[in-house]
Design a protein that fits this description.
Strand content of chain B: over 45%
CATH topology of chain B: Immunoglobulin-like
Largest sheet of chain B: 6 strands, mixed
CATH class of chain A: Mainly Beta
Oligomer: heterodimer
Radius of gyration of chain A: 13 Å
Number of helices of chain A: 0
Number of domains of chain B: 1
Order of helices and strands of chain A: EEEEEEEEEEE
CATH superfamily of chain B: Immunoglobulins
Largest sheet of chain A: 7 strands, mixed
Distance between the termini of chain A: 37 Å
Helix content of chain A: under 10%
């Protein structure tokens, strides 16, 4: 069964460094999402992406964050200058149809900012 | 925006027991998903269930969309069922981002 993949599984970085989290969505999917989960809390929406542009973003998704689909298969989340509070699990998700379809989640990248 | 509430927040079971987890949502929705977060933090899709009942092995789910709730049943629980169970519904409008509940943390003891 097709699945969403994410790399790396765990990333440790120093405060102020840039990180890029990578995702490969399911190949025929059209809608892409990033979510994050701070340890012990609920999963929160960050951003959605469709037709090569951001379709919706949350208040969390400030100027330090950016997303890109550089080559038609990868979907990346960049954090320009990491803060301690960016430490979280980051999930990528994709779906084929907008309203009547399962959103499939990747296994997540655990980001630790020191 | 839509609110999602899950109950109970915590549940402790002996292996072999049955349980029911509940998800209430504040507005009408056109789909609902249940997830299991395992000890490694991965979110595992359990059900996509906008209405009606579905079964998958020892797990089943029922959504009553008109009354704005969904139930997840776990029968004959096993230690591997431990983890956090989340329900999530799409926000109205926009690109259907999922709104998650706070989860039910389940611990199954041998």
């Amino acid at each position: 069964e097709p699945e969403v993949t994410q790399t790396p599984s765990h990333q440790v970085t120093q405060m102020g460094q840039e990180v890029i989290l990578r995702c490969v969505p399911i190949s025929n999917h059209l809608y892409f999402y990033w979510y994050r989960q701070i340890l012990g809390q609920k999963v929160e929406f960050l951003v959605s992406f469709y037709n090569n542009e951001i379709s919706e973003k949350s208040e969390i998704f400030d100027d330090q964050f950016s997303v890109e689909r550089p080559d038609g298969s990868n979907f990346t989340l960049k954090i320009r200058s990491t803060k301690l509070e960016d430490s979280a699990m980051y999930f990528c998700a994709s779906r084929y149809l907008l309203t009547t379809d399962t959103q499939y989640f990747g296994p997540g990248t655990r980001l630790t900012v020191l | 925006g839509i609110q999602v509430e899950q109950s109970p927040p915590d549940l402790i079971l002996q292996e072999g027991a049955n349980s029911t987890l509940r998800c209430n949502f504040s507005d009408s929705v056109n789909n609902l998903q249940w997830f299991h977060q395992n000890p490694w933090g991965q979110l595992i899709n359990l059900f996509y269930i906008p209405s009606g009942t579905k079964q998958n092995g020892r797990l089943s789910a029922t959504t009553v969309a008109t009354e704005r709730y969904s139930l997840l049943y776990i029968s004959s629980s096993q230690t591997t069922d431990s983890g956090v169970y989340f329900c999530a519904v799409p926000s109205s409008g926009g690109y259907n981002k999922l709104i998650f509940g706070a989860g039910t943390r389940l611990a199954v003891h041998p």
